[in-house]
Structure formats: C-alpha cells, structure tokens
Specification:
Residues 80-111 are annotated as: Disordered. By secondary structure, the protein is mostly helical. It has 5 helices and no strands. Helix content is 69%, strand content 0%.
Length: 111
C-alpha cells in the first residue's frame, strides 16, 4: 500500500487555494471585520486540515468544509450571533452543493 500523505497534503493545499477567497468573503460579510474573518477562516482551515484524510472519503466534502467554516465564523461573532446576515453563496459554491430531489422538482429547468 502506498503512502497517501503527500497526495492528501497536495489535495488539501489545492482545496485551500480554491476556496480561501470565497471563505474570506463569506466570513467578512458575516463578521464585518477582515481581521476577525481572517482568524475564523484560518481556524476553519486548521480543522479541515486535521480532518482531511477522513473528509476525502466523504460524499459531500465541500458541504462538511462549509459547515466547519460556519462553526468557526459563528464562534467569532458576538454573543448575539452574527453581526450581518448570511451571505448568499457564490454561483460556483451553490453549484457544488448537490440539490435534493425536492429542489430539482421546484426548479426543473436548473441543472
């Protein structure tokens, strides 16, 4: 059996590069502070990195990563919750999340 660690590390770095800017925009919109957003996103990526080998076997890796991001963004928010409303996901992010059959039936012309 081959050692997957280098390939897994490379896959994580690629994932981070592909998602970091969007995660920062989301966190900044929710928190209203670039510094707080940066800290929350870094913590989220640390958690994703730590869980990465198991996440690679998940059917919905990006969804789990987004859940971790929201957890760390919410943890940075004041006690009353987020300071701004949740951002609408980018078209690329929305397209990456599988839609339920009910959602497909409600919008049959969408992919």
């Amino acid at each position: 059996m081959t050692d997957r660690a280098p390939a897994d590390a490379l896959a994580f770095r690629a994932f981070r590069l592909a998602h970091r800017d969007g995660y920062l925009r989301f966190a900044t919109d929710r928190l209203g502070s670039e510094a707080e957003a940066e800290a929350a996103v870094e913590r989220a990526f640390e958690a994703i990195r730590d869980a990465w080998p198991g996440m690679l076997r998940m059917a919905h890796l990006e969804r789990h990563a987004q859940e971790l991001l929201v957890r760390y963004v919410d943890a940075k928010a004041p006690r009353g919750g987020v300071t701004r409303p949740a951002a609408t996901p980018s078209p690329a992010a929305a397209a990456s999340v599988p839609r339920s059959s009910a959602a497909r039936a409600a919008a049959p012309d969408a992919p």
